[in-house]
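Deliverable D2.4 — example input (structure tokens):
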């Protein structure tokens, strides 16, 4: 298997420039996790006070759920904290979790980015698609169909394969075991909220964003990062895309510098909060012209992804 070409920081930065860029902070990673949870709580409080703000809260919370996954991704690169044990604890227990399963999979994606062996090709290879096909995908995301398939598709398949007379209880017990973290979090939130009349907080303020806005922004992230890039692309500066993101896009679509994906693939161990500095330095050195950058933002990327003729 041919691995993707790698770049050396020494070809772009002096030692004085690279040292602060590559340094891990002991406080910035935890601060971003705290920021994500604070925004989730603030959006939930907003709904309690002004119920009509629920649609906005769903978008804010769903984007922070993506943000927590992005910070877990940073932990997979050992970039969330300078102490690896603390890094792994933060990435496993203060985010959606699954760090130790995700890390080898994701590092394989980096090793073979846009090559035939890239395990993430399934997400990007189908693009471009037609506008109608993209519209159907967005509708499935926003109506919870994508969420249900991803979270409960395995259970449905087991129930369909179950023959008459086969016990149902072992299937249910295994499903609860597989989802014990998700369900346990729901029980804790419900128990804490019920005495204050907020028994509905978990399904409305966590599951609803998770089932609607999160699948959509996750899809947008995947499209922006690698869609419409040739399989087998040899240039490591064009195997991933950086997308311009303004304040609204960072709030509702692309949190925690996830839009700087070209820079991330070029130097994958750089903490996410240093990627804007990498971007500015590379542009100042004239390297930006060689990189895959979409200045038109996420709407332009969507138009590119839906560019296939009907």
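Example output (designed residues):
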């Amino acid at each position: 298997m041919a691995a993707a070409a790698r770049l050396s920081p020494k070809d772009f930065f002096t030692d004085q420039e690279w040292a602060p860029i590559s340094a891990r902070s002991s406080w910035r990673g935890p601060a971003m996790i705290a920021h994500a949870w604070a925004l989730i709580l603030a959006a939930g409080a907003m709904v309690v006070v002004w119920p009509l703000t629920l649609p906005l809260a769903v978008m804010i919370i769903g984007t922070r759920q993506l943000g927590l996954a992005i910070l877990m991704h940073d932990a997979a690169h050992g970039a969330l904290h300078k102490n690896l044990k603390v890094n792994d604890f933060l990435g496993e227990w203060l985010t959606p979790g699954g760090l130790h399963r995700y890390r080898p999979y994701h590092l394989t994606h980096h090793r073979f980015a846009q090559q035939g062996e890239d395990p993430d090709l399934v997400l990007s290879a189908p693009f471009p698609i037609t506008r109608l096909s993209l519209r159907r995908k967005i509708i499935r995301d926003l109506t919870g169909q994508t969420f249900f398939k991803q979270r409960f598709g395995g259970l449905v398949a087991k129930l369909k394969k179950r023959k008459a007379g086969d016990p149902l209880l072992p299937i249910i017990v295994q499903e609860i075991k597989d989802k014990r973290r998700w369900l346990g979090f729901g029980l804790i939130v419900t128990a804490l909220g019920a005495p204050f009349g907020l028994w509905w907080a978990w399904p409305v303020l966590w599951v609803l964003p998770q089932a609607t806005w999160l699948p959509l922004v996750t899809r947008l992230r995947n499209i922006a990062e690698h869609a419409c890039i040739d399989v087998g692309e040899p240039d490591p500066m064009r195997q991933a895309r950086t997308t311009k993101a303004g304040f609204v896009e960072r709030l509702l679509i692309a949190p925690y510098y996830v839009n700087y994906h070209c820079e991330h693939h070029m130097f994958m161990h750089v903490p996410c909060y240093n990627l804007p500095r990498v971007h500015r330095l590379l542009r100042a050195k004239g390297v930006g012209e060689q990189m895959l950058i979409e200045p038109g933002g996420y709407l332009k990327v969507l138009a590119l992804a839906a560019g296939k003729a009907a």
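The chain has a mean pLDDT of 95.
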